[in-house]
Structures are given as C-alpha cells and as structure tokens.
Design brief:
- The structure holds two protein chains of two kinds.
- Chain A is of the alpha+beta class.
- The longest helix of chain A is centred in the last third of the chain and has 22 residues.
- Helix content of chain B is 19%, strand content 43%.
- In chain B, the strands form three sheets. In chain B, strands 10-6-2-3-4-18-17-16-11 form a nine-stranded antiparallel sheet. A five-stranded antiparallel sheet of chain B has the order 5-1-7-8-9. In chain B, strands 14-13-12-15 form a four-stranded antiparallel sheet.
- In chain B, strand 17 and strand 18 form a beta hairpin.
- The chains are: A alpha+beta, B alpha+beta.
- At the A-B interface, strand 17 of A face helix 2, strand 8 and strand 9 of B.
- Chain A: InterPro entries: DNA_clamp_sf, Rad9, Rad9/Ddc1.
- Chain A: This is Cell cycle checkpoint control protein.
- Chain A: Belongs to the rad9 family.
- Chain A: It comes from Pipistrellus nathusii.
Chain lengths: 459, 281
C-alpha cells in the first residue's frame, strides 16, 4: 500500500517501534492504523500539530529515585529475574508496577512502587483518536535491564539520582544514573510493546495466613540444596514444617531429605484454618526472600489446599510486592507438575471499540470453552465461576486491576477479563502432560496470543 | 547395627563441620567407618573415578562427641562401614551453626540413612528442630579389606610442608601451563614444584623446610642430602588436595617415593589426614 510522504511522520508516531513482523499487531490495532492513514491521505497538508491533535499524547512514564531507592528498585528487579527473563514496566496512578511471569505460567511476581516511593513520578496514558485510552505496554528483557542494576551496594553509594523515562511512541526506555563526580550513565533499553499479564488472586479468601520475618524463612530455605527444586510446607494449628518435597516417583536414594519445624510463636501472624501440605518451587521463594531482606518487612503467606496458588506478599508503606506461585495438586492421577496460574490480560479498549465484532466473538468462544471444560469435571467449577463474578464486584486489591479505567463498562468486563482463578489445571482430556504444561485456560483470544508471542527483540 | 552420637559443644561442632567440609572437598563419595573409639573417612584407591588417589582421615570420637554408642555388624567385627556422599554431610552440618545440640544416628527410613537432628536456638530463645536424612549405603563385610588403613610407604625423602596457602596459589597458576607437576624434595629441606611445557618451564623453590627424623636411619645415610627424589603427578589431583585445606595444619609432612607416589600426612589438631597421589604413568 503506497502512503503519501507526509503521512510518514504520523506513521512513526503510531508505530515508531522496532518491527516485529505482523505478529505484534493484533488485527484490531492494524485496522485502526489503516483508518488513520486513510484519514490523513484525505488531508492536503498534514502538519505536526495536526498529528498531535489527532493522536493525543503518547503513554508516558517519567520517574526519579535517589541512591537508596535505586537499591530497593534494583533488588525488586533481581527478585523478579528469578521468575522469568522478561519484565513489564506498568505505570498507573497507583504507582509503577514491575511484573514478571515465567514461561510455564507457574509463577508470577509483581512489585508495585507507590508514587511516594519516588522523588518524582509522572505517568500518562495515551489517548487515541477515538477517545480510548491505552497504557504504556512495555516489556523489557531481563538480560538488558539486570546489568544496569548490578552491584547495588555501590549503586547506593555512588548514585545521586536515577531517572527513568519512556514513551510508548519511542521504542526505548531511558535510564539515567547521575553519579558522584559528575558522571552520568545513560542506558537505552529497547522495549517490546506487550500488555502485561496479571494474576488475579483473592488472597484474603485463603484459610491459611502466616506472617513471618524473612530471616526465619531464609534460615529454613538454606537447609535445602539448590538441586532440590521443590519444597513442601506442611501446616497444622500447632506447628509449621518446611521440608523437602517427597515424590513417589523420584529416586530418593541420592538426595537428602530435610525438614524444619517452626513453632507458631515465631510468626507475627498465625492463622491456620485448614491443615494442609503444599508443594512449590524453591527458586522463586528465594527471589522473594532476597527482596524482603532489602525492605526489612515481614512476608505474608496466603495459601489453602494443594493446587491452589500460594501468595507471598510484602506490604510496605512505599511498595507492595506479590509473588504468586502455583502449587502441586494433590491428585495422584495428575502428572507431577505445578499447576499453572490463570492469567488475564488487560485489553486495550480500542481493540474492543474498533473491532468489537471480531474480538467479541473470540471472547465468547473462550468463555464457552471455559465453561465447557470447567463444568462437568472440575470440582471447583462453582468456586471458580463465582470467583469470576466476585472479582468483578469486589473492591480490588492492587493485584486485580492494574489499569482501572474508570470509563469501563461493567457489562463488557466479563468478556474483557478472563479473571479465572484456576486452582487446578484443566481436565486431563487435554492430553498435555509435559512437565510444566501451560495449562491455563486464559490463553485468551488468538489475537492477544499473536500479539505477545513474538519473542525477538531488535535492539 | 546401631549408632547414635551427640555433640553438645559448639567448638566441637565447628571442628567436626570443618573436618566434614574438608572431606567433601577431597572426595565425592567416601566411606565412613565407625568404631568404638574412632571415626574414619576413607577413600580407597580402587574407588571409581578417584584416579588412584586415596585418602584416610581419622578422628578420635571422644574429642567430639559427648555421647557415643555403637554396635557393629557382629561381636567380633564391632565396626560399621557405610558409604555416603560427603557433601551431603557437610551441608547438613553447616546448617547447625547455632545449634544447641546435634545428634547423629543410623536409621532405616525406607532405606538406610544417617539422620542428623539439630536443635537450633532461635532469636526468641525457643528451639527449632531441624532434621536431615542423609541416604547411605551399608558396605558388606566382604568389601572391608579394601578399606583398611594404607601402609605408610618407605619414602625416599620425608620433608615438612611449607604454608599450604602459598603452595596453592603457586600451583593454581601453574595449572594453566601444564597438567603434569613434578614434586621433588631432598633431605636438605628443599622442595621444588616444577612444570614444563614446550615454551616454558617454571619452578618454585621452597627452602629450609626441615625434614622429620626418618624412621630408618639407614636410608638417610645412603642418600646425599642434596639428592632430589622426584615424582610426577597430575596437577589437578594435587590442587584438589590443597583445596581441601582451609587452615594450615598443625603438622604437615610430605613423603616422596621416587617415581611412584607422593604421600601427604597432615595433622589438624587431633584429626589426622593422609592423602596418597600416585605418579602419572
């Protein structure tokens, strides 16, 4: 399709990002851009100001931190790097959220820094022609951002100010470290446009809640060698036991079995409603522990029965961290793998607004598939479906709504968000028995998957 | 077969942990021999993957354990031989740094284990119980003959070792040049470590080390003090031996049997360690 020369600046504005191929743009967005270019062709002399007035400002994030804040920020990134190789930067009025999900969807981490954590914090959504808002959808590779926040102790000493700036129409995040002796380090990290995934988990409904100082947990975790991937947490109202996970199928002859008992009095808050034993991956817990030691705040664990995710959270004045880990389900018939979490994707309003019919159809299909699979076999079907409605209605803790668009129509929200808390994987007729299957039904709609499936960065 | 023992003193626990860590660095899998008065960590030269290296470590149990009870395989053979992964034991012991008490016993939970139970003291001065079950393999009587104390060879030269840390830093660098290290020593207190490649040869000389009085006086008379006895060994095996020594021993002797092997005899306070490296063929 030929485009008039004048429209090229506009195209850069809309899509001044590295090319990922067609996979990055969902059909809805592509249609939108076609619309724009058609509109502009109609104009004789589109100018810069016209472009701006058509598009509105781009989604933007601008914040600054002092040296000691950089240390905490860097620790958060390091902790999230234990979960996966990708990090979302997700600003909102609640603050800047850093999110990470692992590839098999069995662990999710989110650290939300409130605006008062920063020296200054500005953000905005982009407002597009049809009035819809969209957020900065920024996904970074851990490999690019981790090296910037290495040697945190020396960063804390040397950095006077750290500024982070990005706009959705630029293709990069600019991180500037203003250090002592007038040294200024600038890092340009390219990002991929991608909607952050979030896990919606109503941790307050869990029967078991434990709050403990990170040091105690760290002492327990040290017992387990790194070769032991999974640990089991066994609780009764009288005691808590952290032990090596014992799998029938594993060859036990080579590994040491360790266990540690912690009495209720060592916890700052101890509520056990249900005697249970849950098994989860040690690696992500270690990441969370590292971070909590930096914040000096206790860790709260919310959990229930095996199969239901475990939430580890830190609630601090200036930040809130949540790590959601999938736990092994109890049934012997299942392949021994942690159940994956169910994720939802925030939808761009524009998608729905512009190509409602297409996406609407997919929504329906997916919803159908959920109810089809959930209803007959799933023991927790009722709970899940009621959770969906509960989540729509209940006041949201930070975890659920990352971008609370106030203009959201309640009617469309059930289509837009697949807010299923899957406490066990899909039924076995799916036939997926790889070690860590992506069993979540929230594979959302095809277009969303395409948008986020591209995995190459062009820097 | 029964074994149960308890360590109640922090210093003893520390010392035992250090011994265990040293053994873990020297051997991946080793044999633990339990006798009424001694404990031994043994690596036989016939051990697979050992490369002919052998180790014999002995410690008197009374210096470590406040309680010690054992019952061997039978009345006449009042000993227990078990095989374990040395690192498992050292890791378990390392978690006991703030322990009030540590108990070790032989158990059978689905398979034989050495169970280490630790009573940790937490900040709130309440105890926390930690248990490690280390899987072990009981060694049958017929294989015991391979695991006896090796005879100390008649060395051509016996010499006291220099500071191990110095030797280690020197040999570490030499490893990049060649795999074959020549250890030579004489009765004049000189010890040389030599490596050679096509382009370069490097020798480090240690002087005035002193020689222990040899058991057989005849040998030392025949030999001129300047004459070097040499043996060529795999540098990596020597390095592995040095890596296991975190602290300098109370006493360290090197015995060179020309072209056959080198024998290191160390004493760390009350723990004796003997390490044999065969000559490279």
């Amino acid at each position: 399709m030929t485009r008039p020369l004048r429209s090229q600046p506009m195209r850069k504005g809309v899509r001044g990002r590295p090319l990922y191929g067609e996979a990055t743009s969902g059909e809805g967005v592509e249609a939108e851009r076609e619309e724009f270019s058609k509109l502009l062709k109609a104009w004789a002399a589109p100018s810069q100001s016209l472009r701006l007035s058509l598009l509105g400002p781009a989604a933007m994030l601008k914040c600054g931190m002092s040296g000691s804040q950089v240390k905490v920020f860097g620790k958060a990134i390091q902790a999230l790097s234990r979960i996966s190789d990708e990090l979302w930067l997700d600003p909102s009025e609640k603050g800047l959220a850093l999110r990470s999900v692992n590839s098999c969807r069995s662990a999710y981490g989110c650290v939300l820094f409130s605006p008062v954590f920063f020296q200054h914090y500005h953000w905005s959504t982009s407002v597009e022609m049809n009035g819809t808002k969209s957020n900065l959808n920024c996904k970074l590779g851990m490999k690019s951002i981790l090296p910037i926040f290495r040697c945190l102790n020396s960063l804390e000493r040397n950095v006077e100010m750290c500024k982070i700036f990005t706009r959705s129409d630029k293709c990069k995040v600019v991180i500037q470290l203003f250090c002592r002796h007038g040294i200024k380090k600038t890092h340009n990290v390219c990002f991929q446009e991608s909607q952050p995934l979030q896990v919606l988990f109503e941790k307050n409904t869990c029967s078991n809640i434990l709050m403990i100082q990170p040091r105690v947990l760290a002492e327990a975790i040290v017992l387990f060698t790194s070769s032991q991937e999974e640990v089991t947490l066994a609780v009764t109202p009288l005691e808590v036991c952290i032990k090596s996970s014992t799998e029938e199928s594993m060859d036990l002859n080579s590994s040491v079995y360790s266990e540690m008992f912690v009495g209720p009095h060592e916890f700052e808050f101890f509520q056990i409603g249900v005697d249970t034993e849950i098994t989860f991956c040690c690696k992500e817990l270690k990441g969370m522990l590292m971070f909590s030691e930096a914040t000096h705040a206790p860790i709260t664990m919310h959990f229930d029965f095996p199969g239901k995710p475990l939430a580890l959270s830190i609630d601090h004045m200036l930040l809130e961290a949540n790590f959601i880990l999938a736990t092994l389900a109890d049934e012997p018939s299942r392949a021994s793998s942690p159940q994956s979490l169910c994720l939802s994707q925030k939808r761009k309003r524009s998608d729905l607004a512009v190509s409602n019919s297409k996406i609407g159809k997919k929504d329906n299909k997916a919803m159908e598939s959920i109810s089809r699979k959930v209803a007959p076999r799933n023991l927790y079907a009722d709970e899940i479906l009621s959770n969906i409605s509960a989540l729509e209605n209940s006041g949201s803790p930070i975890m659920k709504r990352v971008n609370s668009d106030t203009e959201e129509e309640p009617g469309s929200s059930s289509l837009r968000k697949f807010t299923c808390n899957f406490f066990r994987a899909v039924s076995s007729d799916q036939g997926e028995h790889c070690y860590n299957p992506f069993n979540s039904l929230a594979t959302a709609s095809d277009s969303e998957e395409e948008m986020n499936n591209s995995s190459f960065y062009i820097f | 077969m029964k074994f149960r023992a308890k360590i109640a003193d922090a210093a003893c626990l520390n010392h035992f942990t250090r011994v265990s860590c040293m053994v873990a660095k020297l051997a991946r899998t080793c044999t633990l021999r339990i006798r009424p008065h001694t404990l031994n960590f043994i690596l036989a030269d016939s051990a697979a993957g050992g490369g002919g290296v052998s180790m014999w470590c002995e410690l008197p149990q009374e210096n470590f354990f406040s309680e010690f009870q054992m019952e061997g395989v039978s009345e006449e053979n009042n000993e227990i031989y078990v095989e374990l992964t040395a690192e498992n034991l050292s890791r378990a012991l390392k978690t006991a740094q703030n322990a009030r008490a540590l108990k070790v016993k032989l158990t059978n939970k689905h398979f034989p284990c050495l169970t280490v139970s630790i009573e940790l003291v937490s900040v709130s001065s309440s105890s926390r119980m930690v248990t490690h079950d280390i899987p072990v393999k009981v060694i049958p009587r017929k294989l015991w003959k391979n695991l006896q104390e090796p005879t100390v060879p008649d060395a051509d030269v016996s010499i006291y070792l220099p500071v191990l840390k110095t030797m280690k830093s020197v040999v570490e660098k030499m490893k990049n040049i060649s795999n074959q290290l020549i250890i030579e020593a004489n009765l004049n207190g000189d010890l040389n470590l030599k490596i050679e490649s096509e382009l370069v040869s490097v020798t480090t000389h240690f002087k005035d080390l002193g020689n222990p009085l040899s058991a057989s006086e005849n040998e030392s008379e025949d030999r001129s003090p300047e004459q070097m006895a040499e043996v060529q060994v795999d540098i990596r095996k020597f390095l592995q031996f040095l890596a296991g020594q975190q602290v300098n021993p109370t006493r360290g002797i090197c015995n060179v049997v020309s072209h056959k092997m080198v024998h290191f005899d160390l004493l760390h306070e009350d723990v004796s360690l003997q390490y044999f490296i065969p000559a490279m063929s």
